[in-house]
UniProtKB/TrEMBL annotation:
GO terms for biological process: protein maturation. It comes from Chloroflexus aurantiacus (strain ATCC 29366 / DSM 635 / J-10-fl). This is Hydrogenase expression/formation protein HypE. Belongs to the HypE family. PANTHER family: CARBAMOYL DEHYDRATASE HYPE (PTHR30303:SF0), HYDROGENASE ISOENZYMES FORMATION PROTEIN HYPE (PTHR30303).
Length: 353
């Protein structure tokens, strides 16, 4: 993977400053620049916290144990999509946030905002899917709450989940741990969840069925950690896709990131959908993939271990971290050029998780 050529930033310019928004817009929930601004300039100051990059989960110590805790809300539309529904998505998504800190999940709580008029048969299927996903992951749903809103004031059901997980002794993983020289690995094909949602919502076919990749990744993470590879960072590229995840890591760790587009596993149907609709696969959401930054000398060993796991069979080395251009992600294109891979300002595909 040739990454030696120096990059010339002299002709590059910064994008225009973000405009002020007096009201909430859909882009505030898209995981891009507007989401970061909302958190850093509204919520964190209100909570008495300094503006800072945030990880997938918080870490707290109880006695001699370290717990990872994450809260997430799910507002996907439609509620049912190829490969899953909002229920299992809520369970898997929260487990994955915990797993990205190297933790193994222990328990979940769930809160339901129900819209008046929602068929109980649909709600039953969603609840059963949540229970099944939790059992498959070896966790228990231990508490919850239910509220109902007027007809027309919701999309059937919104679900908020909180997860708790135990971080093994000696494991320190986080976005701030990434360092220059790290190899960057993605666990499999990207973009399938976002395109699966799009195909149902818009009634568009892309030549082959696209099924969501929703899955709980904690067992893959356990296997990766057990390999002995020096893993510095884990991230599941959900809202905002691979681009948002890599940018957040680059900015948090103060490193540059260089990836090679041809090495990124993108299914033909995802590529076709993006070409048709003018979207970048790197911005499309995933729900069963992870990105890891690992010591360069351990990359081949970790790749072999990941490919032996059902959720890592298509794992691929896609680039390296660098001390150059800190906070910036660049991609080598198929024609030999270079482009900046930025985070979207607002929304590309609404309500995908």
């Amino acid at each position: 993977m040739p990454m030696h050529e120096p990059l010339d930033f002299s002709g590059w310019t910064c994008p225009a400053p973000l405009r002020d928004y007096p009201t909430v817009v859909m882009g505030h929930g898209a995981g891009g620049k507007l989401s970061a601004e909302l958190i850093n300039h509204l919520f964190l100051p209100a909570f008495g916290q300094p503006a800072r990059p945030l990880a997938d989960a918080a870490i707290t110590e109880i006695g001699n144990s370290r717990l990872a805790i994450s809260t997430d809300s799910f507002v996907v539309r439609p509620l049912f999509f190829p490969g899953g529904n909002i229920g299992e998505l809520a369970v898997n998504g929260t487990i994955n946030d915990i797993a990205m800190m190297g933790a193994q999940p222990l328990a979940l709580t769930a809160s339901f905002i129900l819209e008046e008029g929602m068929p109980l048969s649909q709600l039953g299927v969603i609840a059963e899917s949540m229970g099944r996903a939790a059992r498959q992951a070896g966790v228990t749903l231990i508490a919850g709450d239910t509220k109902v809103v007027d007809r027309g004031h919701g999309d059937g059901v919104y679900i908020t989940t909180t997860g708790f997980g135990l971080i093994p002794a000696g494991v320190t993983i986080g976005p701030e741990q990434a360092r220059p020289g790290d190899a960057i690995i993605v666990s499999g094909a990207i973009g399938v969840h976002g395109v699966a949602i799009l195909s149902v919502r818009e009634g568009i076919e892309f030549g082959a069925p696209v099924v969501s990749d929703t899955a709980a990744l904690h067992d893959l993470v356990r296997t990766m950690i057990a390999s002995g590879a020096r893993i510095h960072t884990l991230r599941d590229p959900t809202r905002g896709g691979v681009a948002a995840a890599l940018n957040e890591i680059a900015q948090t760790a103060g490193i540059g990131v260089e990836i090679v587009e041809r090495d990124i596993p993108i299914p033909p149907a995802v590529q076709a959908a993006c070409e048709l609709l003018g979207m970048d696969p790197l911005h499309i959401a995933n729900e069963g993939k992870l990105i890891t930054f690992v010591e360069r000398s351990d990359a081949e060993h970790l790749l072999s271990v990941m490919r032996s796991h059902p959720l890592g069979r298509e794992a691929a080395l896609i680039g390296y971290a660098t001390a150059d251009h800190p906070g910036v992600v660049v991609a080598r294109t198929g024609i030999g050029g270079t482009r900046v891979v930025d985070t979207l300002i607002g929304e590309q595909l609404p309500r995908i998780c």
